[in-house]
């Protein structure tokens, strides 16, 4: 039902809008095997932009989970390259970020059930400590029936 997708977008939308600079949200798609969870992530950068990623075949090989690389490319995602293992893009707003991330998982990584999405929020350590994340706080699974 499309309403479930709208609810999911609303739930993750407020979660992303609430991110402060250097905070991130990881969106996982639950499967029986934790090693095969498709995921996407977004970080709110200190310049106000949102850096988005979706799992590539490097982290989740196509033989284990489908990927539509043509759809991702047509949707503005940059393919993985040398130092960047995932598909990525930078967007201006939290609204754009949530739509890009959910669509990339839903259609680009074949994640058809909105009830199986969960989110985990975290914060990057401030420089010069480096990019080691602090313990993250789970967000979800969201109750879409409410």
Walk me through what this model shows.
The chain has 146 residues and is an alpha+beta fold. The chain is 25% helix and 23% strand. The protein has three helices and six strands. It has helices at residues 2-17, 69-74, 94-108; strands spanning 23-29, 39-44, 50-54, 87-91, 117-123, 137-139. It has a six-stranded antiparallel beta sheet with strand order 4-3-2-1-5-6, with helices on one face.
Topology of this structure?
Blueprint lengths: L1 H16 L5 E7 L9 E6 L5 E5 L14 H6 L12 E5 L2 H15 L8 E7 L13 E3 L7
Antiparallel strand pairs: 1-2, 1-5, 2-3, 3-4, 5-6
Helix pairs in contact: 1-3
Oligomerization category of the chains in this entry:
single chain
Instruction: Give the % helix.
Output: 25-40%
Please report the number of helical segments: 3
Rounded to an integer in angstroms, the radius of gyration calculated over CA atoms is 15 Å
Q: How many strands in all?
A: 6
Task: Summarize the structure in short.
With 146 residues, the protein is α+β, with helices and mostly antiparallel strands. The protein has helices spanning 2-17, 69-74, 94-108, and strands at 23-29, 39-44, 50-54, 87-91, 117-123, 137-139.
